[in-house]
Automatic annotation (TrEMBL), chain A:
The keyword Transmembrane applies. The keyword Cytoplasm does not apply. It is a multi-pass membrane protein. GO terms for cellular component: proton-transporting V-type ATPase, V0 domain; vacuolar membrane. GO terms for molecular function: proton-transporting ATPase activity, rotational mechanism. This is H(+)-transporting V0 sector ATPase subunit c. V-ATPase is a heteromultimeric enzyme composed of a peripheral catalytic V1 complex (components A to H) attached to an integral membrane V0 proton pore complex (components: a, c, c', c'', d, e, f and VOA1). The decameric c-ring forms the proton-conducting pore, and is composed of eight proteolipid subunits c, one subunit c' and one subunit c''. Residues 61-119, 144-202 form the V-ATPase proteolipid subunit C-like domain. It holds the Pfam family ATP-synt_C.
UniProtKB/TrEMBL annotation, chain B:
This is V-type proton ATPase proteolipid subunit. Belongs to the V-ATPase proteolipid subunit family. Residues 22-81, 99-158 form the V-ATPase proteolipid subunit C-like domain. Its main location: membrane. The gene is VMA11. Proton-conducting pore forming of the V0 complex of vacuolar(H+)-ATPase (V-ATPase), a multisubunit enzyme composed of a peripheral complex (V1) that hydrolyzes ATP and a membrane integral complex (V0) that translocates protons. V-ATPase is responsible for acidifying and maintaining the pH of intracellular compartments. Proton-conducting pore forming subunit of the V0 complex of vacuolar(H+)-ATPase (V-ATPase), a multisubunit enzyme composed of a peripheral complex (V1) that hydrolyzes ATP and a membrane integral complex (V0) that translocates protons. V-ATPase is responsible for acidifying and maintaining the pH of intracellular compartments. One of its GO terms (molecular function) is proton-transporting ATPase activity, rotational mechanism. The chain crosses the membrane at residues 15-40, 61-85, 97-122, 134-158. The keyword Glycoprotein does not apply.
């Protein structure tokens, strides 16, 4: 029994990291109820906050999140696939050149993010005379949400293609006729990023 | 000199498109997450069973196709909502309606995609051992897929309820 070390706090002890979500939620709830019950509930104004942030900030946050999150997804996919590819290639070095196509699929996700960020950047201009008009606010919101959608969809797509590419490399190392069939799964995964691109183009096209 | 920001006290405030756009984003995002999880999780099972029974692999690709359909649901509602967005004469009511439509499609798509992934992974491994399980696998996958369809129905009904009275 003494050979195992357990994280025993003597029965009934809690670590800080397990309590933190409960502390945070009850703290926010306390503050919210206090504001509501003492008549200052209207100070929590979502619309005022949204309008007080400059439209330039919204646009540029969207553009940077687009390229940042897409590249993050591509990186995640590349390291998942690359680790499996090189690991399986120890005993089956023939698979390496053919399976580089999975890494290229992940890289394409980063290119989608790059292209969309360049398209969004072409819509920016320093129109300070009309900065408080509805059109300027709409442009800020549209670029923010289009960039965020494209970025997060590409993040998900990169992870999906990465894991599918890892499965393809491992299956190819076993039996080389399996590669093409598992590649079909990767293609289905990459259409997710394409849909994010389409939505991003649609939303920012009206700006 | 720039003018002050507009006061947000009318029925069509300038921040109303923020919520409509949030609906577009959440529809596409969450259904992509579900579709992605379904694709890679069942893909792991398919690649694994293919090393033993490669001749059954083409029929075993069904979970991957059904996960792809989940992302199409998200795309459909995103395109519908994005077509209705305008910078002016867009009421806050319509913004919240579009947010609700997008969230309903997105979250149900996330759940359906997660179910398709787990079911697809386990069922294709069983299908490799017992080919008569194919019909059972398709039935369970259809029930998981229809969860995403329920969200799409609610999203489409909500979308018809938008009205821009300022």
């Amino acid at each position: 029994m003494g050979a195992y070390s357990t994280r025993d706090n003597g029965g009934g002890g809690y670590s800080l990291s397990s309590l933190l979500p409960y502390v945070a939620i009850s703290g926010l709830g306390f503050v919210g109820l206090y504001m509501l019950l003492t008549g200052s509930g209207e100070q929590f104004a979502v619309g005022e906050f949204i309008l007080s942030v400059s439209p330039h900030m919204w646009s540029l946050l969207g553009i940077s999140l687009c390229v940042g999150l897409s590249v993050g997804g591509a990186a995640w996919g590349i390291f998942i696939t690359g680790a499996s590819l090189v690991g399986a290639g120890v005993h089956a070095p023939r698979i390496v050149t053919k399976n580089l196509i999975s890494i290229i699929f992940c890289e394409v996700v980063a290119i989608y993010g790059l292209i969309m960020a360049i398209v969004f950047t072409s819509k920016l201009n320093n129109d300070n005379d009309t900065i408080t008009s509805s059109e300027a606010y709409y442009k800020g919101f549209a670029l923010f949400w289009a960039g965020l959608t494209t970025g997060l969809c590409n993040l998900v797509c990169g992870v999906t293609v990465g894991i599918s590419g890892s499965s393809a490399a491992l299956a190819d190392a076993q039996d080389s006729q399996l590669f093409v069939k598992v590649l079909v799964i990767e293609i289905f995964g990459s259409i997710i990023g394409l849909f994010g691109l389409i939505v991003g183009l649609l939303v920012s096209g009206k700006v | 000199m720039a003018t002050l920001p507009p006061i947000a006290s009318d029925y069509c405030p300038p921040f109303a498109p923020f919520f409509g756009l949030m609906g577009v984003a959440s529809a596409m995002l969450f259904s992509s997450m579900g579709a992605g999880y379904g694709t890679f999780k069942s893909g792991i099972g398919i690649a694994g069973m293919g090393t033993f029974r490669p001749e059954l692999m083409m029929k075993a690709l069904i979970p991957v196709v059904m996960a792809g359909i989940i992302s199409v649901y998200g795309l459909v509602i995103s395109v519908l909502i994005a077509g209705a967005l305008t910078p002016s004469s867009y009421s806050l009511y319509t913004g919240f309606v579009h947010l609700g439509a997008g969230l309903s499609v997105g979250l149900t798509g996330l759940a359906a995609g997660y179910a398709i992934g787990v079911v697809g992974d386990v069922c294709v491994r069983g299908y490799a051992y017992q080919p008569r399980l194919f019909v059972a696998m398709v039935l369970v996958l259809i029930f998981a897929e229809v969860l995403g369809l329920y969200g799409l129905i609610v999203g489409l009904i909500l979308n018809t309820k938008s009205s821009n009275l300022c």
